[in-house]
Design brief:
Chain lengths: 113, 113
């Protein structure tokens, strides 16, 4: 069974700062990892995914994430955040063989102007 | 391309009442998911379908919840006798195959009083 954990419930940064949102997973096989964003009152929107190849993947709006097998991590980063990036970010994991995605508890990012 | 459509957007029930949620996925997406998202938590899978077949409903409280997708397109999730613990947002998502990004609807926010 795959599990995913997001250790930071809340992160606050100033506009223009960089940010890293952490995600760790537990699974022994080939894995499919994703990040989603959820603005208040809306459904989740896909940001990016990793399943093989280059461990650094690029997503929309300047987000990127890096897969590390040794650390069992898939952290999300952005070099310069904007106030509109304020939202809840969810990491998700599934087995590469094809099951449903399991979501973490989410990290609420607050960008202060 | 139209997104995933869910209705209603909101529902308020007394304990013991029944409610149905409806989902229209993206055309051509063979896989449809229902997730329950309690307040300030991550989405938790209830059930998912590939075409009209249930693939996994192991986390669906079968004594009160049911879900169908009779023609492999739209889906209905029903709660027979709601409890206060069912208060949550119910999210529908669809994808083309198992290991691909999900498109979520805006969700139905349920309050059981």
């Amino acid at each position: 069974t795959q599990t995913v954990s997001q250790s930071d419930a809340h992160v606050t940064v100033f506009e223009g700062d960089s940010v890293e949102l952490r995600c760790n997973y537990s699974y022994g096989g080939s894995i499919y990892l994703s990040w989603y964003i959820q603005h208040h009152g809306h459904g989740l929107q896909f940001l990016l995914k990793y399943y093989s190849g280059n461990p650094v993947v690029q997503g929309v709006n300047g987000f990127e994430a890096e897969f590390s097998k040794s650390d069992s991590s898939f952290h999300l980063r952005k070099a310069s955040v904007h106030w509109s990036d304020s939202a809840v970010y969810f990491c998700a994991v599934s087995a590469n063989s094809g099951t449903y995605q399991r979501f973490g508890t989410g990290t609420k990012l607050q960008v202060v102007p | 391309e139209a997104g995933v459509t869910q209705s209603p957007r909101y529902a308020v029930l007394q304990e013991g009442q029944a409610v149905s949620f409806w989902c229209d996925p993206i055309s051509g997406h063979d896989t449809l998911y229902w997730y329950q998202q309690p307040r300030d938590q991550g989405p938790q899978l209830l059930v998912y379908f590939r075409d009209e077949a249930v693939i996994d409903n192991s986390q669906l409280p079968s004594d009160r919840f049911s879900a169908v997708r009779p023609k492999g397109t739209n889906s209905t999730l029903k709660i027979q006798s709601a409890k206060q613990g069912d208060t949550a947002t119910y999210l529908c998502a669809s994808s083309r195959g198992a290991n691909s990004d999900y498109t979520f609807g805006s969700g139905t926010r349920l309050l059981v009083i």
